[in-house]
Amino acid sequence: MSSITGVSAADTPGPDDDLHEGGPEGRTPSSDGASTGRLGDKIFAGLASGAGILVVALVTLVGAFLVIQAIPALTNNDSNFLLSQDWNVDTNPLQFGIARLLWVTVATSLVAMAIAVPFSVCIALFLTQYAPSWLAKPGAALIDLLAAVPSIVYGLWGVFTIGPHFQPVQNVLTSVLGWLPFFEKTQTSAGSTIFFVSVILAIMILPIITALSREVFAQTPQAHKDAATALGATKWEVIRTAVLPFGKPGIISASMLGLGRALGETVAVMMIVSALAPNAPWSWSLFTGGETFASKIANNAGEFDNPTKTGAYIAAGLVLFILTFIVNSLARIVIERRKAFSE
Amino acid sequence: MSKRIDVQNLNVFYGDFLAVKDASMVIEPRSVTAFIGPSGCGKSTFLRTLNRMHEVIPGGRVEGKVLLDNEDLYGPGVDPVAVRRTVGMVFQRPNPFPTMSIGDNVVAGLRLNGVKDKKVLKEKMEQSLRGANLWDEVKDRLDKPGAGLSGGQQQRLCIARAIAVSPDVLLMDEPCSALDPISTLAIEDLMNELKSEYTIVIVTHNMQQAARVADRTAFFNLEATGKPGMLVEMNDTQKMFSNPDQRATEDYISGRFG
Ligand SMILES: Nc1ncnc2c1ncn2[C@@H]1O[C@H](COP(=O)(O)OP(=O)(O)OP(=O)(O)O)[C@@H](O)[C@H]1O
Ligand SMILES: [Mg+2]
Asked: Per UniProt, what is one Pfam family of this protein (chain A) (predicted)?
């Protein structure tokens, strides 16, 4: 009985209470604490699961909305939705496919990540592991500040500052790596290619990835670093054996956040990249123009005049939705797989 | 190979703060030496100077000499990384690398040294785990994470990791303070075995432990908080605990200590 008095006193104040009055350590206050604690627990659990359910419901609803709106267009489509690169939504039946949009979206985002993540990780490592503290502290504050600035500001800066000087870079890349289909030479000017969009997207997502990576690296337990140092690890080896493994899930999460931003970025892409001529042949080159899902939808938002036509764009939006979903799931899987090793 | 440590007039600073003042001692090879003393007297600080681990703390620096078989650890051109490869360290809290398996933890130091040969790594892994009396407990789960072991097993894993690189000296800072009595005994037995090959230095708050494992014992003290710690007495453990030369030592050991 006495071992559960805390519980019974909290739940059923009444006959039991007098049993505790002589208790050595003032049961009443502690059981009061327990009961408010329990009420607080319930409220919080309710709020948390409510919010969780709400989010899941919202996502499901958005998905359902997209599917319902897209069906009329999809059933009235003369082209293969996934494999075609047509986009004629004023005809009847419609002829539209997302192949080109998907490719440009994925290519710009992946190349942007490939540029931004290594840079971000290096900056974050420098700030947390190498910089003296008089530089590290203001540096960290600055990065957090930069991450809070809307990324379009960096996009604009990149377009106007780097854009005019980008042609030589493109010329070098196409002449050195031109044998790869991705780097094939084209007539598109450097300021309006897929590759240049990637560079701008990289600049746009760099601050947020850096800020988040810096945050995780800074939290590497000293004990892990000491373990490596005591084994005779150099600075870089300490980073490799202690800091990077500890920060890996954080880097992945930060990258996914950046990737999400890159996938959905609209204005910068619209400003830069030139749309291809309607019947242009397929090209893998990063040095041509094109449109992403987001820029395609935004570019044509003014023409959503009939439901079927709008449905075509919504179908494209649905694919972007699914793409984001897949990317995030993959990130989760990668993080989960090593979970046993990251406690 | 076991080496002799000769510390001469060592001052240790954190920034401007003098943490340990003018300590000199000789630590014999193939023996266990224990450091005892009240909290804050600089035992850990002094221990860390023996493999230059204090240098990872901002402001940590020393004046004086630490000779390892006549080679000054602080001589010009001596690389602290190289020092730490010959003087290993085990910490108060077991700190296996959480992202590595048990086996990878053991050979982490060898990998850092550039050993790639799978066979060599495997042999060393088994040999070190046997050396740390952990082999039988983990041989079936070498690819599982080290964090899944008990605290005592983790600490022995850390010892295995430290001895895998065949250091000359093994420093242990309160290696048993987070462990239960059984695990503590296991590690004390281990120290007794390891001392035939290594110079072992251990910091402990447990007087019985010092009496059980140490051949020689050093007592550190400080006059008051904020004052530097000092080496008061170093003697054979038996003498320290029966008939110490210094009054302060006797007071501390017998518990008459303010
Ligand atoms: N990182 C540090 N920066 C500044 N001062 C420190 C640092 N670590 C320790 N000190 C100071 O150095 C002195 C010695 O500390 P140390 O940790 O060596 O004591 P200790 O004998 O190991 O104590 P304990 O038995 O509690 O572990 C103390 O005054 C402590 O405040
Ligand atoms: Mg200590």
From this structure: BPD_transp_1
ipTM of the complex: 0.90
The span from the CA of A123 to the CA of A207, in Å, is: 10
What backbone phi and psi angles, to 5 degrees, belong to B234?
-135, 130
**Token pair for A131:** 């910089």
| Structure confidence at residue A341 (pLDDT) | 65
Q: What is the CATH number of domain A76-342?
A: 1.10.3720.10
- For residues A263-278, one letter each, b for 16 or more C-beta atoms within 10 angstroms of the residue's C-beta and e for the rest, the string is bbbbebbbbbbebbee
Q: In this structure, which topology does domain B5-253 adopt according to CATH?
A: Rossmann fold (3.40.50)
Preceding omega of A93 cis (within 30 degrees of 0): yes
Query: What value, to the nearest 5°, has the Cα angle with vertex B11 and ends B7 and B14?
Result: 130
Domain boundaries, chain B: 5-253
Q: A251 vs chain B: nearest CA distance in angstroms?
A: 15
Say if CB B121 and CB A268 are below 8 A apart. Answer: no
Interchain pair A231, B84: CB under 8 A = yes
* Interatomic CA distance for residues B95 and A217, integer angstroms: 18
What string of pLDDT tens digits covers the 343 residues of chain A? 333 333 333 333 334 443 444 444 444 444 444 556 688 888 999 999 999 999 999 999 998 988 998 898 888 888 888 888 888 888 878 888 888 899 999 999 999 999 999 999 999 999 999 999 899 999 999 999 998 888 888 888 888 888 888 888 888 888 888 888 888 887 777 778 889 999 999 999 999 999 999 999 999 999 999 999 999 999 999 999 999 999 998 999 899 889 988 998 888 888 887 777 777 788 888 888 888 899 988 888 888 888 888 888 999 999 999 998 898 888 888 777 766 665 5
Give, rounded to a whole angstrom, the gap between the first and last alpha carbons of chain B: 41
| Cα–Cα nearest to A63, from A333, A338, A321 | A321
Structure-token match 């992403």, residue found: A292
Phi, psi of B204 (to 5 degrees): -150, 150
DSSP state of A242: I
Give the closest of B85, B95, B148 to A227, CB-based. Answer: B95
Site residues for ligand 1, CB cut-off 6 Å: B 14, 17, 19, 37, 39-45, 57, 229
Atom number, ligand 1, closest to the C-alpha of residue B17: 5
Residue boundaries of the structural domains of chain A: 21-66, 76-342
- CA–centroid distance, B20 to ligand 1, in Å, is 9
Reduced to 3 states (helix: H, G, I; strand: E, B; else coil), residue B72 is strand
Does A226 lie at the interface with B, CB-CB under 8 angstroms?
yes
* Helix, strand, coil shares, percent, chain B, to 5: 40, 25, 35
Ligand approaching nearest to the C-alpha of B39: 1
How far, in Å, CA of B66 to CA of B79, rounded? 14
Q: Tell me which residue in B53, B98, B101 faces A230 most closely, judged by beta carbons.
A: B53
Q: How many helices (H) and strands (E) does chain A have?
A: 14, 2
- Helix B102-112 and helix B118-131: axis angle, to 10°? 120
> What is the CA(B44)–ligand 1 centre distance, in A?
7
Ligand 1 atom nearest to CA at B15: 4
Ligand 1: which of B10, B20, B36, B43 to mutate, most ligand atoms within 8 Å of CB? B43
The CA B241 to ligand 2 mean position distance, Å, reads 21
- Cα(A314)–Cα(A72) distance, rounded to whole angstroms? 11
